[in-house]
User: Which sequence fits this backbone?
């Protein structure tokens, strides 16, 4: 018995430990019924994991189903072309909110993309800098800061000094939220670029900054774009920080210093209103917003399908 | 050949390495290596894994400096110029000393032609005529021209492994270096592709000084004029390849080249 068990615990006690830990109930030997039991366990666990995986998809399907059933009816030409109607009047649309969302995420990109991408490049390509640990740590913490906190910060930094809610403040708050997301994804995709390319370029006498721009970033371009799009999708649906900054607007915005409408804000305002027509429009707005975010995600899927593959030219 | 080559080595050393030691942190990877490497000849560096041969190679074009813990002592003269003098930029050294790596690494975002000229273009050469000439010339030298001349604008990674490695050699040659370093250039290739690389090495030594690290004794014996045997960071023995492989002076060299260890 000692020999058979090798280095395992010896003696009668050891025998029992091994015996019972290996062959827990119900059957002590490998027999036909034991085999059946194992198969049953396997099927059970497989089913369990499958059900859990399906539970991930289920909420999305539910959301889509609800949005389609409640909101599809309110989507029409006017919804995309008209301003909201005053209280009590039926009809109108969310043209200004849809445009506002695009304006806000464009502004946010102006701030978030350059800082995020360049920061990510620094983290990845100058990885021996002693500040890097702190930058990375800070970015991760900042990524977890609740979005309403961002709204309050920008309210204090921009809205109060400028004495008013503004498009600028809305763009800045979304941009600030994008920076850490883009920074970390950029760093990660740059790390995926094999070191051999960097070495090959440097060994040709190419300066490091040119190596980074022309070789490393170019190789990882799709991944970087993916990170940017995911950050856009993330902030496109933000509501809380916009309450303190962009504020919302029932009309067209003509200047960066004026408040601006945004889809999530308009949805929020309509959803908490007591009017059925506004509720319908809120559903429709939510449907448009989720279609927008889904569209961004689909673009990301297409882009990442062959990242770093042979045909990545 | 031997006598002529030895004269070559003593009179026209392309690289004069004097008391070179390389440390990674507290760890001495190369210890006090002094060696003259002859111009227009192939010098093979052999030795068991971890003996410092790759580090030696990378020190010649200052690639080891990419490791921030690396520190060096000693001097390396490239045709008389101290490549570690404070006035010399690593970038300039690397233009004079090209390198080919173990794993072929053509840039995946570029075509065959773009890969060849990348070293020129990213160093400011804009003249289309020069770039075209240099593309053909380099690909011919790398014995790849006939295979790719009809698809210069195809992606570089559409080539086979052996072709990719020859493309990397062409890319290194296009910047017209004086010395070409090769770090096990054929170790990931099949025998036929290896044969082509070895033929190429022998062809290239007419114009270039070549230093090649190899694990393959036959390859060192076939394609090199001089062989240096490194062991545990020290240069054990250096001399004409025929001598190292037939009657080495040191017991350790003999044991290694006959396959008794390493």
Assistant:
């Amino acid at each position: 018995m000692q020999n058979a068990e090798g280095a395992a615990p010896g003696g009668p006690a050891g025998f029992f430990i091994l015996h019972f830990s290996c062959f827990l109930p119900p059957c002590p030997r490998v027999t036909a019924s034991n085999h059946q039991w194992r198969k049953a366990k396997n099927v059970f666990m497989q089913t369990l994991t499958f059900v859990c995986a399906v539970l991930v998809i289920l909420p999305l399907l539910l959301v889509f189903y609800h949005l389609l059933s409640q909101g599809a009816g309110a989507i029409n030409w006017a919804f995309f072309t008209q301003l909201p109607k005053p209280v009590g009047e039926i009809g109108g649309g969310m043209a200004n909110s849809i445009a506002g969302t695009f304006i806000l995420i464009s502004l946010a990109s102006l701030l978030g993309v350059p800082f995020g991408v360049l920061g990510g490049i620094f983290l990845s390509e100058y990885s021996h800098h002693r500040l890097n640990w702190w930058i990375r740590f800070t970015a991760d913490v900042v990524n977890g800061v609740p979005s309403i906190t961002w709204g309050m910060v920008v309210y204090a930094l921009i809205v109060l000094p400028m004495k008013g809610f503004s498009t600028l403040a809305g763009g800045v708050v979304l941009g600030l939220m994008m920076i850490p997301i883009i920074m970390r994804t950029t760093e990660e995709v740059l790390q995926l670029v094999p070191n051999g390319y960097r070495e090959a370029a440097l060994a040709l006498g190419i300066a490091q900054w040119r190596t980074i721009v022309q070789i490393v970033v170019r190789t990882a371009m799709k991944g970087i774009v993916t990170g940017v799009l995911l950050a856009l999708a993330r902030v496109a649906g933000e509501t809380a920080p916009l309450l303190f900054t962009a504020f919302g607007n029932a009309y067209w915005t003509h200047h960066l210093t004026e408040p601006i409408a945004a889809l999530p804000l308009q949805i929020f305002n309509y959803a908490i209103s007591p009017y059925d027509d506004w509720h319908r429009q809120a559903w429709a707005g939510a449907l448009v917003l989720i279609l927008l975010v889904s569209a961004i995600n689909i673009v990301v899927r297409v882009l990442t399908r062959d990242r770093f593959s042979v045909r990545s030219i | 050949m031997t006598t002529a080559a030895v004269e070559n080595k003593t009179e026209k050393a392309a690289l004069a390495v004097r008391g070179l030691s390389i440390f990674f942190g507290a760890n001495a990877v190369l210890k006090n290596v002094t060696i003259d490497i002859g111009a227009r000849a192939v010098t093979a560096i052999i030795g068991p894994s971890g003996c410092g041969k790759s580090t030696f190679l990378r020190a010649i074009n200052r690639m080891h400096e990419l490791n921030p813990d690396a520190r060096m002592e000693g001097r390396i003269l490239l045709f008389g110029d101290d490549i570690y003098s404070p006035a010399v930029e690593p970038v300039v050294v690397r233009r004079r000393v090209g390198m080919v790596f173990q794993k072929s690494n053509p840039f995946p975002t570029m075509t065959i032609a773009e890969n060849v000229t990348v070293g020129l273009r990213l160093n400011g050469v804009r003249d289309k005529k020069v770039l075209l000439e240099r593309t053909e010339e380099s690909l011919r030298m790398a014995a790849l021209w006939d295979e790719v001349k009809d698809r210069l604008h195809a992606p570089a990674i559409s080539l086979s492994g052996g072709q990719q490695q020859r493309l990397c050699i062409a890319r290194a040659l296009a910047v017209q270096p004086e010395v070409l370093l090769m770090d096990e250039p054929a170790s990931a290739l099949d025998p036929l592709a290896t044969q082509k690389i070895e033929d190429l090495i022998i062809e290239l030594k007419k114009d270039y000084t070549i230093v090649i690290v190899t694990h393959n004794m036959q390859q060192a014996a076939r394609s090199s004029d001089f062989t240096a045997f490194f062991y545990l960071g020290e240069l054990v023995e250096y001399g004409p390849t025929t001598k190292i492989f037939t009657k080495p002076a040191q017991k350790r060299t003999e044991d290694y080249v006959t396959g008794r260890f390493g």
